[in-house]
Write a structure and sequence with these properties.
globular, mainly alpha
Length: 394
């Protein structure tokens, strides 16, 4: 007999629902930013249009991808996950709206704030990550979960890179932020990817014992990335290059233990493994940049588009289903979106090496990026803005 839906289950999508849990509003807003910021940047550099940017064009693009797009993804994931980890009440309603408002104000001020005082533009933008850290840190402290403090440490370093970038307009800080992003991906990815893989294999009657994690290797990889950051920022180029190669090898060995090929038939899992594979690729490319003069655009786009954007798309596709009480069944078209975002990263890296002409490379990678995040917006807006079908809160 078919169950009769409750009023809660059939309630329409609403803006209010977006503020019932951090992942809802931040995943949706992050996606809209991804769909606006990249084409606006292409229009800027091709001279088609000029926005009244508060920063020079290249610095605006780098900031919005690193500290606008990435920070929203971090806020949506972390403030949702930390409530589960610590069993505390979620951030929602007016409190969440204020936090989101700070993030949105930062985007608007940078895009249209030419002529405004730097203290206003920079101050608003530098307020967001500390507010996220304060919310998450209070919960972690209350639950005495020392294991989570490493995430806060890495976020603190990311904020320092943002401050240095805005105050000095030095690309070394944006590159430092990319290294920190790789470290954060390694921490979060190292927790969820092997666990999800093991669970899927068991649920489908496969042997999950071959999937292994190595805490010592995990720590060595993270420490190598932190040493890389220090060497890079202090200008020890040869040392930084050598450490980048070592960190890449460690990251690759770590990933091999997770046996990603065993879940090649599940898009919600292979997207995680394939995305994290960009971490060692980016580190090895960085080593080539520092030691052999390879183009910096290769490693930076392997890190930003490959590792960060690809993993973000994979994670938000899964979290948005699981935390809204829906089956982990990927909506139609999203597997193609996963392929598209990886192709966008690959083409952008090849373009940096001049293996693809600049205009076709930029154009095709941009279209693939827009397709990937456009598909998420199309398939997930209703999910994110609608109540849980099981009637539960959140």
């Amino acid at each position: 007999m078919q169950a009769i839906p409750t009023t809660r289950q059939t309630a329409p999508a609403s803006i209010r629902q977006l503020f019932s849990y951090p992942f809802r509003i931040f995943f949706l807003s992050m996606t809209v930013l991804a769909l606006l910021a990249v084409p606006l940047w292409v229009l800027q550099i091709t001279g088609v249009m000029q926005l009244p940017l508060a920063l020079p064009g290249l610095f605006w693009h780098q900031h919005e991808m690193l500290f606008g797009f990435l920070s929203a993804a971090i806020a949506g994931f972390l403030l949702t996950a930390v409530c589960v980890w610590t069993q505390t009440e979620r951030t929602h309603g007016a409190r969440l709206a204020v936090l989101w408002g700070v993030w949105l104000a930062g985007r608007l001020l940078l895009a249209f704030g030419a002529g405004l005082p730097d203290s206003l533009v920079f101050g608003v933008n530098l307020a967001f990550l500390p507010l996220v850290m304060l919310d998450a840190g209070w919960r972690i402290w209350q639950a005495r979960q020392k294991r989570q403090l490493m995430i806060l440490l890495v976020l603190g370093l990311l904020w320092l890179m943002q401050a240095g970038f805005l105050l000095r307009l030095d690309m070394a800080f944006s590159y430092g932020a990319l290294i920190i992003a790789l470290a954060l991906i390694s921490i979060i990815g190292g927790r969820i990817t092997p666990a999800f893989t093991t669970g899927w294999l068991r649920n489908h009657g496969h042997d999950a014992s071959s999937v292994r994690t190595n805490p010592a290797l995990d720590m060595a990889t993270l420490l190598a990335m932190l040493l890389l950051l220090a060497a890079f920022l202090t200008g020890w180029q040869t040392l930084a290059g050598a450490v980048a190669v070592a960190a890449g090898v460690l990251a690759l060995a770590r990933l091999a233990g997770w046996k990603g090929w065993l879940v090649r038939g599940e898009p919600l899992l292979w997207i995680l493994h394939l995305s994290i594979l960009w971490v060692p690729a980016a580190l090895l490319l960085l080593g080539g940049t520092l030691l052999a003069g390879w183009p910096s655009g290769a490693w930076s786009h392997a890190a930003g588009t490959g590792a960060a954007a690809c993993l973000i798309l994979g994670v938000i596709a899964r979290v948005s289903l699981g935390h809204t009480g829906r089956p982990l069944v990927l909506p139609k078209g999203m597997a193609a979106a996963f392929v598209a975002i990886h192709l966008a990263a690959l083409i952008r890296v090849l373009t940096a090496f001049d293996l693809i002409p600049w205009h076709p490379g930029i154009g095709s990678s941009t279209l693939l990026w827009l397709f990937a995040f456009g598909m998420f917006l199309y398939r997930y807006t209703g999910i994110l803005a609608s109540p849980r079908p099981d009637g539960k809160t959140g």
